[in-house]
Amino acid sequence: DAGVTQSPTHLIKTRGQQVTLRCSPKSGHDTVSWYQQALGQGPQFIFQYYEEEERQRGNFPDRFSGHQFPNYSSELNVNALLLGDSALYLCASSFIGTGAEAFFGQGTRLTVV
Amino acid sequence: KQEVTQIPAALSVPEGENLVLNCSFTDSAIYNLQWFRQDPGKGLTSLLLIQSSQREQTSGRLNASLDKSSGRSTLYIAASQPGDSATYLCASKTDSWGKLQFGAGTQVVVTP
Known about the structure:
The structure holds 2 protein chains of 2 kinds. By secondary structure, chain A is mainly beta.
């Protein structure tokens, strides 16, 4: 079992550009959530996907959007990048049937210049 | 709104000493609480999950307790080792769908 995998691991983008981050959940998991972690802070919830629909959303602007595919993998898209979007983006998967343990990927480090 | 606090923000102990890490939460109606380890620039590794009906969970040298009435969870790491140096985060869910609400973490350094 490969666990939760994210790609790419690092990314440098210019302000105003758009970026897409990808996540494959742990085998058997059906729910994917995305988090943003700024340096020295705890992760902040962006949104959660289940059955290809956004189920919950945190306090993030519409520039942040996502998608879940039939194989449960997910993408996070950020438009019109700002310098403040520089952070570690983490994907977590879980199985909603038990609402149980969340497993995280290694993250994508996004730097906006 | 659930708020999670971890104090202290940083901790340094000599090798062999027991570690005690604290986590406080404001909403006692939690669904579960999870402890994570994070190495610099890396993702989160799940250490222990405590369901709301449980009082504690143990895995090897790690033991986590949960006291919903006081809004506290404590992670104990016995006989610390330099390899335990990392940031430890706690996070709670208020329902099965719920997002994880994280504390800011406690950065631990274990000196040889």
